[in-house]
Amino acid sequence: MTESNERPLAVFDLDNTLADTAHRQRFLERKPRDWDAFFAAAPQDPPIAQGVALVLESAEECEVVYLTGRPERCRRDTRDWLAAQGLPEGQIFMRRNAGRAGGRRGDYRPARQAKLEILRRLARTREIRVLVDDDELVCADAERAGFAVVRARWTAPSAALNVAQEREGRT
Questions:
Q1: 154-161: Cβ within 8 A, 24+ apart
Q2: pLDDT (tens digit, 9 = 90+) per residue, 79-101?
Q3: What pLDDT, on the 0 to 100 scale, is given for residue 163?
Q4: 65 assigned to some structural domain
Q5: Taking the complete model, does pTM exceed 0.85, yes or no?
Q6: Which of 3, 41, 98, 139 lies at a C-alpha separation of 20 to 30 Å from 34?
Q7: 99-118 confidence digits (pLDDT tens)
C-alpha cells in the first residue's frame, strides 16, 4: 500500500454483486453458450439491493471503481446501467474484446487471475479498502494476496456463470 492523499478505493464486481443476472443465465446453459445474447440482456438486469446499498455506503469514504469480467464492448451499456441505478461514477475495468485491432487477443484468463492482476496494479498507487465480489475463487485469491474482501452472497450461485468465470474467462 502506498501513501496518498487520495481516498481509498472500494472495488465492486457487477454480475451477481450489483446486477442480478438470473434472467439471462439461460443463455449460458445452452450448448453452445450464447455470449452475445447473454451480454445484450445485461441492461435489463435488476439491481441487487444489498450490493447497491454497500456501494452507496462505501462511496461516503471511498472512491468507487468497478471490476468486471464483462468484455470491453459492454462499456456503454454498463455505464448506462450504473447511472440508471444511481450508483457513483467510477472507473470501470473490463476484459479486452476478442479480435481487437492490432491483432491483440481477448482476455480469457480465469476471473480470479484477471481480477487479481488489476487489484495488484491498483494497489501500487492507491489503498484498496475492500473488494466486493460474488466469485468465491476471486475472493479467496484476493484474501490470500492481502486484500480485504466482502463476499457478495446475496444471489443464488450459478454453475453456468462459475464455469464461464473460471474455465472460459468470459465474465
A1: 154/48, 154/50, 154/51, 155/16, 155/20, 155/21, 155/22, 155/48, 156/22, 158/16, 158/21, 158/22, 158/25, 158/28, 160/25, 160/28, 160/29, 160/33, 161/15, 161/16, 161/21, 161/25, 161/28
A2: 999 999 999 999 999 987 654 44
A3: 65
A4: yes
A5: yes
A6: 139
A7: 444 444 567 778 888 899 99
